[in-house]
Amino acid sequence: RQWILWTPNGREEGGVVDLEFESLGPALSYYFPGVRIKEGLYYTAEVFRCTGTIRGERVSGYGSLDQAWLPHGIAWTQCKTYLYHESYWLVFANRYEDETTDYSIVGCGPGGWNLSYYVQNGVPVTSHDNEFRNTYAEAGYPSELDIRLGANHFKWTADCRLNEIKGHVQWMSGRMINL
Questions:
Q1: What is the rounded CA–CA span in Å between residue 38 and residue 31?
Q2: Which of 62, 78, 98, 170 could form a disulfide bond with 93, CB atoms 3.0-4.6 angstroms apart?
Q3: CB 156 within 8 A of CB 179
Q4: How far, in Å, CA of 148 to CA of 151, rounded?
Q5: Which helix (H) or strand (E) holds 80?
Q6: CA 20 – CA 64 distance, rounded (Å)
Q7: DSSP letters of 45-75?
Q8: Neighbouring residues of 31: CB distance < 8 A, sequence distance ≥ 6
Q9: Alpha carbons 134 and 18: distance in angstroms, whole number
């Protein structure tokens, strides 16, 4: 497990964090016009491979940089995606034995709402035939997600819940189990 820290000054000689990011492909981007909430939302998420050091220790792995552009004074937990549509949001990246990669950003919610963005070896793969099934832990968070993006099938399981803002949002650490 890695914690990626970001400093506004970027790289600093002798700094605590020295990371380089290599994009795995194009970023997801979407615009959600105002309906229930009059303000629109513009959102991007880029998945990348990162290497470098944290506190002098060599690290490598994958991460995502998400950015949301909202009107002044509105936090992401007040945007329409979070309030009305999103039951869960999952970002995953895989590197296979033959060094190929894929990644996805998926979200699912009430009324069949879903957002799915899947990229294989740097090339987006479009599918309108997506299916999501959730299994919830007794505490109410997703413990297993079964995701079909067209012909691609993924199963994710939660290893542990990392953090929770009671009744508001939860963060989990997990892994793919059917690769």
A1: 13
A2: 62
A3: no
A4: 7
A5: helix 80-80
A6: 13
A7: EEEEEEEEEETTEEEEEEEEEEEEE--TT--
A8: 40, 41, 42, 43
A9: 37
pTM, entire model: 0.77
Whole-angstrom distance, CA of residue 122 vs CA of residue 177: 23
Q: What is the CA radius of gyration of the chain?
A: 17
Place of tokens 């009107």: 71
- Token pair for 61: 């792995």
Tell me the one-letter amino acid at 13: E
11: three-class secondary structure by DSSP: coil
DSSP code of residue 82: I
* Cβ count within 10 A of residue 92: 19
Digitized pLDDT (tens) for each residue of the chain, 179 residues in all:
333 444 444 555 556 777 888 899 999 988 877 666 677 788 888 999 989 888 888 999 988 888 888 888 887 777 777 777 777 788 889 889 999 999 998 887 778 778 888 999 999 998 888 888 888 888 777 788 898 888 889 998 888 766 666 666 667 778 888 76
Query: Tokens 């990371």 — which residue?
Result: 19
CB-based contact 51:149 (threshold 8 Å)? no
β-pair partners for 164: 170
